Amino acid sequence: GDSVTQTEGLVTLTEGLPVMLNCTYQSTYSPFLFWYVQHLNEAPKLLLKSFTDNKRPEHQGFHATLHKSSSSFHLQKSSAQLSDSALYYCAFNSGGSNAKLTFGKGTKLSVKS
Amino acid sequence: EAAVTQSPRSKVAVTGGKVTLSCHQTNNHDYMYWYRQDTGHGLRLIHYSYVADSTEKGDIPDGYKASRPSQENFSLILELASLSQTAVYFCASGQGANERLFFGHGTKLSVL
Fold first, then answer.
1. HSE-CB of A13 using CA atoms within 13 angstroms
2. How far is A97 from chain B (nearest CA, A)?
3. Engineering a disulfide at A21: which of A75, A93, B9, B106 sits with its beta carbon 3.0 to 4.6 angstroms away?
4. Which residues of B touch A98 (CB under 8 A)?
5. What residues does A24 pair with on adjacent strands?
């Protein structure tokens, strides 16, 4: 069935190194993919959303590309900052008339100096 | 910035008791969602609604009911609270499932 998968529960990086958080999906239709970020004791908020025209969304130095051939929407950043430490969720709507938005299990990113 | 307000912010309930979590949005959004957050499980969808007076089951609806009496209000009801329902509950609203969701600050529920 339709689903979204984040394989890493915890990613620990040194400040300045590149970030890549994995997200793959299974979808019947043309899906919409999102990345949400949740800082400690805050609500989740939108970081990025996939575009239907394959443009690459970018925000706060993060970007992600929807690859339909590999069913992936990995989150990337060229240089991690201490303030990037947070919980990151990949979220998925399978498209069509479906009103559900399903979240992955989340990846905790910990950036150390 | 869109506003979603949840009440209460935290609650302690007894096993077998009834719990109602409330959510109010002032964004004129049609879609509203209830998620629970648990370490290791992420955000899991309990119930959602895309029009007033109608609700849909999400991925983990067992033990929960939902009510959408108006476009602005969406409640989550635990008729017989259980220990396993201890979690943080988030309400969210949006223009559609393929649009940005705005989340409330969450309700921390402890069932003892």
1. 23
2. 9
3. A75
4. 97
5. A5, A72
Handedness of CA B63, A107, A39, A99 (dihedral sign): negative
What parts of chain A have a pLDDT lower than 50? Answer: none
What is the amino acid identity at position A52? T
Contact state of A103 with B56 under an 8 Å Cβ cutoff: no
Exposed, middle or buried: residue B96 (CB in 10 Å: 0-12, 13-18, 19+)? middle
User: Any bridge partners for residue A45, and if so which?
Assistant: A37
Among A43, A46, A101, whose Cβ lies nearest the Cβ of B33?
A101
Residues 6+ apart with CB under 8 A from A19: A11, A13, A62, A75, A76, A77, A80, A84, A109
Strand bridging mode A75-77 / A62-64: antiparallel
Asked whether the predicted pLDDT for residue B1 surpasses 80, the reply is: no
Residue A44 C-alpha, separation from nearest chain B C-alpha, in angstroms: 6
Distance of alpha carbon B7 from alpha carbon B24, whole angstroms = 9
Q: Please tell me the distance in Å from A16's CA to the nearest CA on chain B.
A: 27
Average pLDDT for B23-39: 95
Q: Which tokens belong to B96?
A: 């559609």
Confidence at residue A52, expressed as pLDDT on a 0 to 100 scale? 62
Chain A residues with a Cβ under 8 Å from any Cβ in chain B = 6, 9, 32, 34, 36, 42-46, 49, 89, 93, 95, 98-106
Give A5's strand partners.
Answer: A24
**Interface contact A100-B35, CB threshold 8 A:** no
